[in-house]
Predict the structure.
Amino acid sequence: MTDYRQKYQMTPVIGWLLRDRGGMILLSILIAASILIPVGNLIVPEGSALHVPTWMMSLLGKYLCYALLALSVDLIWGFCGILSLGHGAFFALGGYAMGMYLMRQIGDRGVYGNPELPDFMVFLNWTELPWYWFGFDMFWFAIVMAMFVPGLLAFVFGFLAFRSRVTGVYLSIITQAMTYALLLAFFRNDMGFGGNNGLTDFKDLLGFSLQSDSTRASLFVASAVMLGICYILARCITNSRLGKVLIAIRDAESRVRFTGYRVEYYKLFVFTVSAVMAGIAGSLYVPQVGIINPGEFAPALSIEIVIWVAVGGRGTLYGAVLGAFIVNYAKTFFTGVMPEFWLFFLGGLFIAVTLLLPKGVIGAVPAFGSPDRQSVLAGLRKRISNGRANQGGKA
Amino acid sequence: MSEAAEIKIEQAERKEARANTILYVDGVSVTFDGFRALNSLSFYVEPGELRAIIGPNGAGKTTMMDIITGKTRPDTGDVLFRSDVDLTKLDEAEIANLGIGRKFQKPTVFESHTVFDNLLLACSGGRGVFQALFHRLGNAEKLRIEQTLETIMLVDKRDETAANLSHGQKQWLEIGMLLMQEPELLLVDEPVAGMTDSETEQTAKLLRSIAIDRSVVVVEHDMEFVRDLDCKVTVLHEGSVLAEGRLDHVQKDPRVIEVYLGR
């Protein structure tokens, strides 16, 4: 360890990455997937066993967006103890920003053929574009907004919450309230975001048809690359001294305050970064699924994200990615085969992970377990005896 | 002498008393839901002094610490640091950065960090978010951390996770973290609770050596330990000072015997 530190004194980031085994595996998989899957889809002929069907590529692209969303939640929950149950809101806002761009791209190809106004506005007898729709005909503007709007909301929300020292369950509850409030707001037609139908019927992105395989492959690659970049960014944050402060806040917040750190600023920083990542995930998600509606703000969805992270392994970053893939694959499978069992399975999974795998699936793999490695059963035993000790000891 | 002149002299005396203090607490009262935790508490600590504060449960020792470190605001009274900084207007982080370190009653360290990282985080220096993001470990910092590890007798636990330390070692680590902050004044709340006899003795030695170049206020129950500290003692009772002086002297005070030692 010391060798690495000295060797990479000039480029500490590379040193961290090389030592981060899980991260190296994740990045390798992402690079391999962003080459092989588009090749398998576009170049390998359809009859071949190696051909990747477009639906599968799009599905995997969707999972990649979920993985990025899970990563953003792990960054705040796993490393700073901020349990946000409203991260779907940032995801959806990023998605709406991209959806607005895609709506403007439709131009006069809509049902009503209005070159300025999206169909739903014509339907509502609106005569001109609301002010907040201006600029969304430009791709760069939409991308900036997909990051800026979630970031701003997180900044303002976080500023108020962290300054007032709202923590723990109370913070989780108000994040739920936030996403629920947005859900209700976006349902209203007057908001100008298409009411409960949301935004859909997208045609093309930067002039490329969204239906074509090459566009879908590009979106898949963009999602994989973005996940890789955000992973490295998040890893840089968690490995810095700032990351150590975040973990310290998670473990003993008051100690950090008495050590002279402004806890609220640290939380605000990481919460905002996380919201921006969630926004990016949303903006990549929408062109791949072809629709964004207020359903994305549903509180239950935000809770599901937390389950992905818990299943994969909280506080590892790559665990969150793995969890997002496992749970979403299971969801795709169950909702296809026996949809009525999906929620039971999800609940059961969460209970099983909490009891048996407190460090998630990643924690059960010995090579990735923390220094105080322990088997599943030993972990369970320890938890039970801890529980007894806590009951016996004084508060 | 006229009354006005008397008041003037009294004010001048108070000012003089204030002038040479590191911590000046005067007439501090605080009430929680009708319960008077502190009742016009006054005492002061001189620079470089080691002071023990004793008192029965509920005497207001921890509340006093809370007020000095900005966790609780007093209803009335003055709390001055270095005779001119008003601590009642500052928050925890500001007070910590001024140079007041606090050790909690229950050892509070960053359990999932190594001993080394615990000290690193406490290391005096930039506390800003972006400073922390781009911080690189310097040799000077490394050296200071190594020195502190020696002081707190944890050199061989350097890379151990703090969660794996014994109770006594955690207490020392926390004291070490305070030292890394380079405080002028250290507030230490029951440092030897739950320690073995030899650990207690070592802790007394550690605190005495720390008090050579900074002021230390120790709140404690353990009389043996207070005797080991060999310093001036302040006895609190029902939120105000009951007696002050050397331990032998205080122990002879009938009121002290009545409320505390006699039982």
Observations:
- The mean pLDDT of chain B is 85.
- Chain B is about 40% helix and 25% strand.
- The radius of gyration of chain B is 20 Å.
